[in-house]
Design brief:
Blueprint: E1 2-6, H1 10-22, E2 26-30, H2 33-43, E3 47-51, H3 59-67, E4 77-81, H4 86-95, E5 99-102, H5 107-123
Helix pairs in contact: 1-5, 2-3
This protein binds magnesium ion.
């Protein structure tokens, strides 16, 4: 199970990578949406954890690319943001996010949410 992680914040990116790696996931991490999109097209992934606020290409724009590409349109996507505003979450879901998590999060909560999305893939 390969997870694409995109977050420009070094602390959170490292944390997400550490949590998922320790749980046994293969992780590909990038520092912005553009690099993550290029990496996804080159290597593919089963699931994505995307920060909303990133330079070059933000999480919403990356999600739009993912949802309009036949190869990735059904890939589960968990969005991360430091903003707890309702409109952010609404925009996330309307753009096609499967779940939403506000930073800072508890390590176990992130892992649980990822596992829920993983079960959705395994059921197919
Ligand atoms: Mg950010």
């Amino acid at each position: 199970m390969k997870v694409l992680v995109a977050d420009d914040d070094d602390t959170f990116r490292s944390l997400v990578v550490a949590i998922l790696t320790e749980a046994g996931y293969e992780v590909a991490a990038e520092i912005n949406g553009l690099l993550a999109w290029e990496r996804l097209q080159a290597e593919g992934a089963d699931l994505a954890v995307l920060d909303v606020n990133m330079p070059e290409m933000d999480g919403f724009e990356l999600l739009k690319h993912i949802r309009t590409d036949d190869r990735f349109k059904d890939m589960p996507v968990l969005m991360l943001t430091i903003r707890a505003f309702a409109e952010d979450q609404v925009q996330g879901y309307e753009t096609g996010a499967d779940d939403y998590l506000t930073k800072p999060f508890h390590n176990d909560v992130l892992l649980s949410r990822v596992k829920v999305l993983e079960r959705r893939i395994l059921k197919k």
